[in-house]
Amino acid sequence: DPGWNNNPGKFRMRMAADLIAGKLDVMDDETRRIASADLAGSSLFRHIASGGVRFDPTSTDPEMISRGDISLPFAVLPADTAAAAGAKSRVLRLSVRDAQRIGAAPEAYGLVQRMLDSGKALARRVEASVAGVLRRLGMRVESDGAAVYLDELDAGE
User: Fold this and answer.
1) pLDDT digits (tens, 9 = 90+) for 106-141
2) Is 58 exposed, middle or buried, given 0-12, 13-18 or 19+ CB atoms closer than 10 A?
3) CA 98, CA 153: separation in Å to the nearest integer?
4) Which residue has the higher pLDDT, 128 or 65?
5) Coil, strand or helix: which one is 1?
6) How far apart are the first and last CA of the chain?
7) Cβ contacts of 22 within 8 Å, gap of 6 or more
8) Handedness of CA 23, 28, 33, 35 (dihedral sign)
9) Are 125 and 136 contacting, i.e. CB atoms less than 8 angstroms apart?
């Protein structure tokens, strides 16, 4: 029972994202990749990635703060990348807060899986050459390692 000291919407959205990520984490690699690609192509993911969720990062309103925490898994970390980042989960999530800060076009997130698959893991960063362009991504790992979020996405030069 979450009691009265919690925001039910925030709790529900976090539990849903954790449930999806947990199910992905126990799948075999091929199934996990297919499921992640489906999530990345979903209308909810596009809504989050395009900044469609109204969110003000300067607000102190608990409802607004909880909107920033809405996230959806969308990519799979290779085992060595997860280990280098200190992550227990191999599922990469995108939150509303991070999508707004990153400001990339929704199509750019489609490159993330290619970057993870072909790139070089440097702790919580990955560098990869995609179509001749050096790209970088950064990850944020929760202190217990149970959740991994896309923290930055750089097209590079």
Assistant:
1) 888 989 999 999 999 999 999 999 888 899 999 999
2) exposed
3) 10
4) 128
5) coil
6) 50
7) none
8) negative
9) yes
CA 136 remoteness from chain centre: 15
* Cα torsion 132, 124, 112, 23: sign: positive
Q: Residues near 96 by Cβ (< 8 Å), separated by ≥ 6? A: 48, 53, 55, 67, 68, 69, 70, 71
**Residue with token string 């809504």:** 47
Residue for token pair 């489609």 = 110
Dist CA 155 CA 135 (whole Å):
5
User: Structure tokens of 104?
Assistant: 């990339």
